Amino acid sequence: MPSCIIVGCNNRTFRKSKKQEKIEEEQKITFHAFPNNKIRRLSWCAALNIPENSVKQNAVICSMHFHSKDFDKSSLVCVKLKADAIPHVRYVDTIVYICHMCVRLHYFIIFI
């Protein structure tokens, strides 16, 4: 059972997280295999900044890493990507860490 290859993305086809279930209430998350075409495969790897030799044969990327314009909406049976679709890294939850010492020092410099 595959899970999305993107670092930090926890979407998977089995044992879905509560966050994934909440997203899927509004839109279904689909999973897409890397293309067999060497040029397209290399362009996907370049867009994701990963070496091609690190991509396993069963690796997939979830639909959260494609734009809505990348999907072929003509099929009623399954969700397909257009031939020119390129994934992108979209971080849903970005955590910002703040150095409290720097904040205090900045406050000290401004107000003293």
UniProtKB/TrEMBL annotation:
<keyword id="KW-0175">Coiled coil</keyword>
<protein>
    <submittedName>
        <fullName>THAP domain-containing protein 9</fullName>
    </submittedName>
</protein>
<keyword id="KW-0805">Transcription regulation</keyword>
<dbReference type="InterPro" id="IPR038441">
    <property type="entry name" value="THAP_Znf_sf"/>
</dbReference>
<feature type="domain" description="THAP-type">
    <location>
        <begin position="1"/>
        <end position="90"/>
    </location>
</feature>
<keyword id="KW-0862">Zinc</keyword>
<dbReference type="GO" id="GO:0008270">
    <property type="term" value="F:zinc ion binding"/>
</dbReference>
<comment type="similarity">
    <text>Belongs to the THAP1 family.</text>
</comment>
<keyword id="KW-0863">Zinc-finger</keyword>
<keyword id="KW-0131">Cell cycle</keyword>
<dbReference type="InterPro" id="IPR006612">
    <property type="entry name" value="THAP_Znf"/>
</dbReference>
<dbReference type="Pfam" id="PF05485">
    <property type="entry name" value="THAP"/>
</dbReference>
<keyword id="KW-0238">DNA-binding</keyword>
<dbReference type="GO" id="GO:0043565">
    <property type="term" value="F:sequence-specific DNA binding"/>
</dbReference>
<keyword id="KW-0804">Transcription</keyword>
<dbReference type="GO" id="GO:0005654">
    <property type="term" value="C:nucleoplasm"/>
</dbReference>
<dbReference type="InterPro" id="IPR026516">
    <property type="entry name" value="THAP1/10"/>
</dbReference>
<keyword id="KW-0479">Metal-binding</keyword>
<keyword id="KW-0539">Nucleus</keyword>
